[in-house]
Design goal:
8 helices; alpha+beta; 35% helix; 13 strands; seven-stranded antiparallel beta sheet; 373 residues; Rieske Iron-sulfur Protein
């Protein structure tokens, strides 16, 4: 049996061919055989076709409205913690579910709209193709572009302005919502509030001059204020502590905020007696004997540095394996972190409790472009 190889036209032939002819040529050269091709709506503009078009457009409209709802929740919904028993607690609890519902519905509606368009409005076509390897020559690239354009024309999308507008609305708003969600939490003016800006201060900053900020442990009950003494820690041990002020003792919201504020957790470490240490310049008086207090927020990406290795005195971050040396002012010695853990200046008051002498001397957490130290 003789096999006939399709003639490959030269550049002159390609220039003289129409888009339809290029599309047919491209399928022939690619070994594509159309087994079935039928227009779902051979009679254009019928009520049934318009009803199907409105149904598809309605899904894209739902996607757009849901995307707007997501943006509204993300930007304007009250997200700050409100304790149980207050009128705002239920609204606070609904913040995350509302984000999930609105964004999920937007993505779901876009998917259903695309599927509905393919099932109800695209031509019913079945094609088979023999696969082949190797790079595509110029003729294949030209004909493929023509095939795509012709397919778009045959799909009828060009004349379905309602679907184009609704799909643009749905996809555009959904994309905008995803973009805002991805970038919104990263955009913050580090100077808003001056010296008391949120990025420069933590929960350890005294609210009034001379106010004592104690080190407390979390017992699971925010009303159970357990202050920390030096004798509470064994040599070579570590405990996570949080700030507490006497003015907060009867304030449930303040007690819970002190335990939940992201920049508050501190690792209080008691080194074994005789352990040699290296002091950081300007921070020589921040520790109390063998007791050292470091921010628990990793300087790489903000994960909790929740592990302390007693034998090597290393502080470990389980997220990306950064390691810090507690005997060298929390200096990073392994992993992606490049900045030492901020050190909290501590002392013991007249009653024998640990207190913070001041807030951290540098910004807590990952570095950013305007960090001053």
């Amino acid at each position: 049996m003789t096999t006939h190889t399709p003639h490959t036209p030269d550049d002159t032939d390609l220039e003289s061919m129409s888009r339809e002819e290029l599309a047919v040529l491209g399928m022939r050269l690619d070994g594509v055989e159309v087994l079935k091709e039928a227009d779902r709506w051979p009679v254009k503009g019928t009520r049934a076709e318009k009803r199907a078009e409105r149904g598809v457009a309605s899904w894209f409209a739902i996607a757009g409205l849901s995307g707007l709802g997501f943006l509204a929740v993300f930007l304007f919904w009250p997200w700050e913690y409100k304790p149980p028993g207050t009128d705002e607690h239920l609204v606070y609890l609904l913040y995350t579910p509302m984000l999930g519902i609105t964004l999920g519905l937007s993505v779901f509606a876009v998917g259903i709209g695309v599927i509905a368009y393919a099932k109800k409005l695209l031509p019913d076509e079945t094609s088979v193709q023999a696969r082949h390897g190797g790079p595509s020559p110029e003729v294949d690239r030209r004909t493929m572009a023509a095939e795509l354009l012709v397919t778009g024309e045959r799909s009828g999308i060009a004349r379905r302005s309602l679907i184009k507008r609704s799909a643009g609305f749905g996809l555009g708003v959904m994309g905008l919502g995803v973009g805002v969600f991805s970038l919104g939490g990263l955009i913050k003016n580090p100077w808003k509030g001056g010296d008391q800006a949120a990025l420069w201060t933590t929960g350890w900053a005294p609210a009034t001059p001379g106010e004592k900020v104690y080190l407390r442990r979390d017992t699971g009950d925010p009303h159970d204020v357990a202050l920390v003494r030096p004798e509470d820690l064994d040599a070579g041990s570590m405990e996570t502590v949080f700030p507490f002020r006497e003015s907060e003792r009867d304030d449930e919201e303040a007690l819970i905020r002190g335990l939940r504020r992201a920049d508050s957790p501190v690792m209080l470490i008691r080194l074994r007696p005789g352990t040699e240490t290296v002091q950081r310049k300007g921070f020589e008086d921040h520790h109390y004997g063998d007791y050292w207090a470091f921010s628990k927020v990793c300087t790489h990406l903000g994960c909790p540095t929740s592990l302390f290795e007693q034998q090597t005195n290393r502080i470990l971050c389980p997220c990306h394996q950064s390691q810090f040396d507690a005997t060298q002012y929390g200096r990073p010695i392994f992993g992606p972190a490049t900045r030492a853990l901020p050190q909290l200046p501590i002392e013991v008051d007249d009653e024998g409790y640990f207190v913070a002498r001041s807030d951290f001397g540098e910004a807590v957490g990952p570095g950013f472009w305007e960090r001053r130290s």
